[in-house]
Amino acid sequence: MTIAEFYQQIYYQNPPKDSAEFINIFESVDVSFDKEDNAETLRQMMRLTADYVHNLVRRESYGKALPVIKKAIDLFESAPDLAGGDLYNIPYYESLIASQAVANYYLKNYQTAKRDFNLLNQRFPDNDRYRAWQAAIEGKWIKTALEILLPVMALSVLGIYLFERFEIELGANICLWIGTPATLLYMGLSAYKWLKERPRRT
């Protein structure tokens, strides 16, 4: 089956009912996605691949999606018919980058996901969804830090109370030295988190 025939089948003749069916059809048909005959066939291939990847991400098959995304992006970036053009003007390319970012986020590849969402936010600054994803990634390390600092603060307070009760001054001082910077850092990070998450006036 050619790419053009498969494209007609998927989008016009017998469209899949849901993500699972799209994935099953895509994976069961023997179509070569490594070579394109012309710009139109390439765009058809881009849409098919982007939708396949999107459905994999929707089904939470993130590890399965990433190699396909990488192969597709490499192919599109090296396509002679697209040389010198802005690939972000093609919705399918944007969809691939977005799917790659989401997949990396859920696979805890936060730096890679952050890079892609930074690019998407630069290109599409009015896209609320991309801004929300970027904020979620930036807030991830803050959330982790706050979760670590909270028990440190609690144990420091408990330690100060116990050491002072038993008149162990050195122990109380050590807990104070640990607890004070932990508390200040916690307050600072909480304030930063609030500032980042508060609604912005438009």
| CATH overall fold name of the largest domain | Serine Threonine Protein Phosphatase 5, Tetratricopeptide repeat
Q: Please give the CATH architecture of the largest domain.
A: Alpha Horseshoe
Q: How many H/I helical runs?
A: 8
Task: Please give the largest β-sheet.
Answer: none
Radius of gyration: 25 Å
| Shape label | elongated
Stretches with pLDDT under 50, minimum 5 residues: none
Q: How would you characterize the overall build of this protein?
A:
The protein is an all-alpha fold and 202 residues long. It folds into two domains: 3-125, Serine Threonine Protein Phosphatase 5, Tetratricopeptide repeat (Alpha Horseshoe); 134-197. The chain has helices spanning 3-13, 19-28, 39-58, 62-77, 91-106, 110-123, 128-165, 169-197. The mean pLDDT is 86.
What's the SSE blueprint?
Blueprint: H1 3-13, H2 19-28, H3 39-58, H4 62-77, H5 91-106, H6 110-123, H7 128-165, H8 169-197
Helix pairs in contact: 1-3, 2-3, 3-4, 3-5, 4-5, 5-6, 6-7, 7-8
